[in-house]
Amino acid sequence: MKVELAGFNTDIQNSSTSPETLSAAYxxxxxxxxxxxxxxAESAGEVEKARRSNRRIVFGYGHSSVAEHAVFNLDVTxxxxxxxxxxxxxxxxxxxxKSQRYIRLSEDWVTPDEVTGEAxxxxxxxxxxxxxxxxxAYDSLRAAGFDSEQSKEDxxxxxxxxxxxxxxxxxxxxxxxxxxARLRAxxxxxxRRLGSAILEAVLPAAPSLFRHTSxxxxxxxxxxxxxxxxxxxxxLTGWDDDSAVGTYLLRRKGVEGxxxxxxxxxxxxxxxxxxLFDEALRGLEVHDALPRCWELARFTFELFISSSAFxxxxxxxxxxxxxxxxxxxxxxxxxxxxxxxxxGSLLEEAVAISLEAASKVPGPAKAYAALNASRRRLLVSxxxxxxxxxxxxxxxxxxxxxxRAIAVEMLRLARMRAPHTLSLAGGKSSxxxxxxxx
Length: 438
What we know:
The protein is of the alpha+beta class and 438 residues long. Among the domains are: 2-77 and 165-223, Gyrase A, domain 2 (2-Layer Sandwich); 105-163 and 334-369; 242-293, no CATH class. The chain has 18 helices and eight strands. The strands form two sheets. The chain has a four-stranded antiparallel sheet. Strands 5-6-8-7 form a four-stranded antiparallel sheet. α16 runs antiparallel to α17. The longest helix has 27 residues, at 117-143. The protein is globular, with a radius of gyration of 25 Å. The termini are far apart. The mean pLDDT is 95.
């Protein structure tokens, strides 16, 4: 594992060498009448004074948002997919990760901290076997006529979650402080080390902006492993109907009060309701975000999906995503190409290796032996605005087949409850078909 500070923001006009001078200067805007430029110039010339100011304002007064003005870029390399998922669970940051879909991988994995001695040697033998199956799967798919992109995309389903990855990470100091505390409460040793490595990378650059970095009881609770049981692959378990947004649209048009809007909504015909939504959405283009009032409608799903599909779902961080660690099991997603190429048994062999490896390691390490094909149960709640954005990318004809099937079904179920709210939800490829007809 390696975490390196690649960069941070500075006051370039005043040749500042620390992001702390910007946060300290901006903190004074609310109480100092001087122009911002003067505040920045003064702060840049007195770094130690800026640090004292940050400590007093951010931690003494509790104005934590000031720390958001300091932004860091980090190179994160040599971590497992397990650790990457833990890191990428934080919403207010940006991540760009090495893709297993587009890059053919060589043997490279992380042995969990909890596995040592003979157990580590046995674990390595299992991982070598899985990477061998990955190569066989790729070659077999190519021989069956699938192109290189499709073959890489589907062969990865036999890869384990201990596979090494790398990413670029950008986040502000407030979020990084939160990250370090929570990661250091994780059950897996690698994840705890990642939290410490991030802190070690950023602390010298901005010592005044990091104080609450030790895990609290809340961090421990949030990091506790848990299990969700259930049935079904895509289920809508909670929802709002069209009235959630529709009554707000009526109030915008002058209907008085919540009670008045509720009454007016009930009196509207189906045609009237459609016209109300069509008017609000008139002129919306495929790349436009829906109006913020669409966030008033919310939909909760229970999903049972592959780890490969989860890797794409987790990128949509503006939602509530509750996902237990992936534990190897016989439940797996079989790529259709495997069936067409007659190599379904290859995945079954990978599942058997995964289960055997997991049986020999302690609890926190079991996730490392899970496959991209391994299914996991999780809860996700999205507002209608985010669900529409999610559908633009994941219900599109060009989306990866696994996540696309899930997104299409989520959208189908939600549309049954709120057809007008979600009238323009769908993939970019179906945009013309979504447009209202005269």
